[in-house]
Write a structure and sequence with these properties.
Length: 125
């Protein structure tokens, strides 16, 4: 097994708002993969095309509920997570934990997104 996690989904109340938030904060493109026959709005974060890397998406659908409770998803904060973290509040989120040194494991931070999810960032610098 290469990775303990191979896919994640972040539940959202408003797909377009969440897509704009994550696209801005993470400086990446979220590609739409809606499933209209199931009344699901879905967007995928970039991941390795060979599908051996970890990937994930945003999902707006019945039964999907954003939360600050439960598992914490750590998104790749890039070279220095300060860059992404600096865009959180201007994009409608809230920083819950500033950039924090975790020793030999790099740095982490946590925020709530526009939908009410607690999400974390990790970087080595």
């Amino acid at each position: 097994m290469k990775n303990a996690v191979n896919w994640f989904e972040i539940p959202v109340k408003n797909y377009e708002r969440a897509k704009q938030f994550y696209s801005t904060v993470m400086a990446l493109e979220i590609k739409d993969h809606h499933m209209p026959e199931q009344n699901v709005k879905y967007g995928m974060f970039p991941y390795d095309n060979d599908n051996n890397g970890v990937g994930g998406g945003l999902i707006e659908a019945d039964g999907q509920k954003p939360t600050t409770d439960g598992p914490t998803i750590y998104l790749n904060g890039g070279e220095d997570l300060s860059i992404a973290l600096s865009k959180v509040e201007a994009s409608g989120g809230k920083v819950m934990m500033p950039k924090t040194d975790i020793g030999e494991n790099g740095f982490m931070a946590q925020f709530t997104d526009t939908e009410g999810n607690r999400i974390a960032l990790h970087s080595w610098m």
